[in-house]
Design a protein that fits this description.
Largest sheet: 5 strands, mixed
Number of domains: 1
Oligomer: single chain
CATH architecture: 2-Layer Sandwich
Strand order of the largest sheet: 3-2-1-4-5
CATH superfamily: Ribonuclease H-like superfamily/Ribonuclease H
Structural class: alpha/beta
């Protein structure tokens, strides 16, 4: 006799699968298992791809693609958000010295023209294209594959929470974050008052207040609602 649905559900509690196709179970720390499986399937050059900067009100969106040497992987790789600034800087130098790295951007103008999702995918596509060797397989953070990578015939794999599961994606997340943070620090020197050296362009309270007080800069994303609203208010005041 079939079990009631409620009992069936209870019977399945605790059955956790590490099936990479399921993409539902984050690991406690990233490892090289996704890369190993891809290599066992004949994809020798495996690149991790990640982006940073979808949420800020200002600055570019930045992506990185990284091919690690399986025999020389820096220790301590993890999602860049889980690492201290000091640790990220240390790993950035190690990755740059010991891996194949490409970092690329999509500009504020491109973000406003095509939307932030497409712009972030464009940055990823540019990062992959900039690698010194064409990868045989791409491990991409998230649940979407940039259409330009599919069009170019790449073997691809989207991994949910990939920056906490694959060391190659972890490395890419670190490289992208450090490079974008440096850009925002430089812009903060040119446009003081917005706090970009500490908030990296994200919509912190101080950044929002500065927008109201100082106005919109050429580096603000006009398609983002808080910026658009400031411009709309200024237009109404001037009419």
């Amino acid at each position: 006799m079939p079990l009631p649905l409620a009992i069936c559900a209870l019977a399945n509690v605790g059955v956790l699968r590490f099936d990479r196709g399921m993409n539902t179970l984050p690991k406690t720390a990233p490892d090289y298992s996704f890369e190993t499986l891809a290599q066992e399937n004949g994809h020798l050059i495996v690149a991790g791809v990640d982006e940073v900067g979808r949420g800020p009100l200002a600055g570019p969106v930045t992506a990185a693609a990284v091919v690690l040497d399986s025999a020389d992987i820096p220790e301590g790789l993890n999602d860049s958000k889980k690492l201290s600034a000091k640790r990220r800087e240390l790993l950035y130098a190690q990755i740059m010295a010991r891996a194949e790295v490409s970092i690329a951007h999509a500009s504020v103008e491109e973000i406003d023209d095509m939307n932030i999702l497409r712009a972030s995918h464009l940055a990823m596509e540019r990062a992959v294209a900039g690698l010194p060797r064409r990868p045989d397989h791409l491990l991409i953070d998230g649940n979407m594959i940039p259409r330009g990578l599919t069009a170019e015939g790449y073997s691809t794999e989207a991994i949910i929470k990939g920056d906490a599961r694959s060391v190659s994606i972890s490395a890419a997340s670190i490289m992208a974050k450090i490079r974008r943070d440096r850009i925002m620090w430089d812009l903060a020197q040119q446009f003081p008052g917005y706090g970009w050296d500490t908030n990296a362009g994200y919509p912190s309270k101080s950044h929002r207040l500065a927008l109201q007080k100082l106005g919109v800069t050429p580096h603000h994303r006009r398609s983002f609602k808080p910026v658009h609203n400031i411009l709309y208010q200024s237009k109404n005041l001037s009419d």
